[in-house]
């Protein structure tokens, strides 16, 4: 059977992003028969209907088309979804053919005390319109300011980090079973 491809998209563009660290962790924990490709959305311009697609947009849209499922790392800005992630989804949502319809998606996030739960619930609303099938559990609401992360954003080798890694692995297993 062909290897399944999960596309990881991260809402934070900063170098030491904990959310990107979650995606790197997910990539390491993929079950057999599946791989996680992390999209580079850092060069996507803001979407406008009459804007020509740049090379970065074309590459991203092709990755979305090819993906069997999505792992979305939901950075929370001001109680909602960080704009880079929303913008990436907006670009793909205007493609011909429903590029998201019926595909599974897993949400995870690292933020303040609420672990990006507010942003994740906002994103779930967007996913309804995109017809993505978002998994309900396990929920990955990580504290970005805890010992679960190294300074470079990677999930740490601490007790808290190991628990987080196990949750991410379980989420990827669920996702790949549906992809
Ligand atoms: C503009 C901005 C707004 C933020 N708003 C929130 C927020 O509403 N809730 C929250 O938990 N953290 C908030 N934070 C803190 C981020 O969750 C924290 O910086 C986190 O590490 C960002 O994710 P990253 O490490 O992937 O960049 C905010 C940070 C920034 C820069």
Q: Layout of helices and strands, plus pairs?
A:
Blueprint: E1 4-10, H1 18-28, E2 34-38, H2 55-66, E3 69-73, E4 76-77, E5 80-81, H3 83-93, E6 104-111, H4 117-130, E7 133-134, E8 140-143, H5 159-178
Parallel strand pairs: 1-2, 1-3, 3-6, 6-7, 6-8
Antiparallel strand pairs: 4-5
This protein binds flavin mononucleotide.
Flavin mononucleotide (FMN) binds next to α1, β4 and β6.
Overall description:
With 179 residues, this protein is of the alpha/beta class. The protein has a single domain, classed as Rossmann fold, CATH 3.40.50. The protein has helices at residues 18-28, 55-66, 83-93, 117-130, 159-178, and strands at 4-10, 34-38, 69-73, 76-77, 80-81, 104-111, 133-134, 140-143. Strands 1, 2, 3, 6, 7 and 8 form a 6-stranded parallel beta sheet that branches. It has a two-stranded antiparallel ribbon with strand order 4-5. It is globular. The mean pLDDT is 98. Flavin mononucleotide (FMN) binds next to α1, β4 and β6. Flavin mononucleotide binds next to α1, β4 and β6.
Give a quick rundown of the structure.
The chain has helices at residues 18-28, 55-66, 83-93, 117-130, 159-178; strands at 4-10, 34-38, 69-73, 76-77, 80-81, 104-111, 133-134, 140-143. With 179 residues, the chain is α/β, with parallel strands linked by helices. It has one domain (4-178): Rossmann fold (3-Layer(aba) Sandwich).
């Amino acid at each position: 059977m062909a290897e399944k491809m999960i596309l990881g998209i991260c809402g934070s563009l900063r170098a030491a992003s904990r959310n990107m660290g979650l995606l790197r962790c997910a990539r390491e924990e993929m079950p057999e028969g599946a791989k996680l490709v992390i999209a580079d959305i850092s060069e996507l311009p803001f979407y406008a209907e009459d804007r020509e697609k740049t090379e970065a947009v074309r590459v991203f849209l092709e990755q979305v088309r090819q993906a069997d499922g999505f792992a979305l790392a939901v950075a929370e800005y001001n109680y909602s979804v960080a704009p880079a992630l929303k913008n990436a989804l907006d670009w793909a949502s205007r493609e011909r053919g429903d590029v998201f319809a019926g595909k599974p998606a897993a949400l995870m996030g690292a933020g303040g005390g609420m672990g990006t739960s507010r942003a994740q619930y906002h994103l779930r609303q967007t996913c309804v319109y995109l017809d993505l099938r978002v998994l309900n559990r396990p929920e990955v609401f990580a504290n970005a300011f805890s010992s679960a992360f190294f300074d470079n954003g990677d999930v740490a080798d601490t007790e808290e980090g190991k628990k987080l890694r196990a949750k991410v692995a379980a989420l990827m297993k669920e996702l790949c079973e549906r992809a």
